[in-house]
Amino acid sequence: xxxxxxxxxxxxxxxxxxxxxxxxxxxxxxxxxxxxxxxxxxxxxxxxxxxxxxxxxxxxxxxxxxxxxxxxxxxxxxxxxxxxxxxxxxxxxxxxxxxxxxxxxxxxxxxxxxxxxxxxxxxxxxxxxxxxxxxxxxxxxxxxxxxxxxxxxxxxxxxxxxxxxxxxxxxxxxxxxxxxxxxxxxxxxxxxxxxxxxxxxxxxxxxxxxxxxxxxxxxxxxxxxxxxxxxxxxxxx
Length: 237
Ligand code: F6R
Prior knowledge:
There is one protein chain. This protein is of the alpha/beta class. The protein has 7 helices and 10 strands. The strands form 2 sheets. A 7-stranded parallel beta sheet has the order 1-10-9-6-2-3-5, with helices on both faces. A 3-stranded antiparallel beta sheet has the order 4-8-7, covered by helices on one side. About 40% of the residues are buried. The model has no long low-confidence stretch (mean pLDDT about 95). Fructose -6-phosphate (F6R) binds near residues 36, 37, 39, 67 and 134. Fructose -6-phosphate binds next to loops.
């Protein structure tokens, strides 16, 4: 079942998403959370940090697995997704997560790294909740439009629209890595619950097409229609 919640601001989207994550962690403190980076979840993480500081929630027993990482950036690079997670969530908590994982974008053998990551997700028993954003081309994680859905963690050539969209975080478009490693659709759809946050008018068309249009690897997020428990929280502003 897919629930589409339209809210009136980025702040409300973030609070709604944080509440849903908190519900899962309160019900099962050792939850495995699939986490995302990008602008969309920043407010959600701010709210989770606030809740943790206020003693309303604890991640001490929780584990996390992130969706993706740029190829060639190690965790000390300020545009790496490991760095993003450390600065927006992990290092801001009074009590850290029991464990956190982000795919390694600098492994000498990326094939082995992809296999290791899928094994890690399997060993954790899959995720209890997967948080997602959506790219302008309909990507989730860095599963870009293509001829087929790829189930396993894999290395991907980023779509030109993704490179353009993410250039805002780098000094210039030329500095945006051209490749990334991403959890595949198997890992994402293996989550018990999926929570997608999106804001801004620019996301509205791709989101509606993903939710109400045909299921096709040309629009990767459309695969979410096959999952039994998806909540989309969208704010036009
Ligand atoms: C990030 C990720 C991407 C983003 C998407 C939207 O870990 O998996 O799919 O969620 O590119 O990014 P923002 O939120 O910056 O618009």
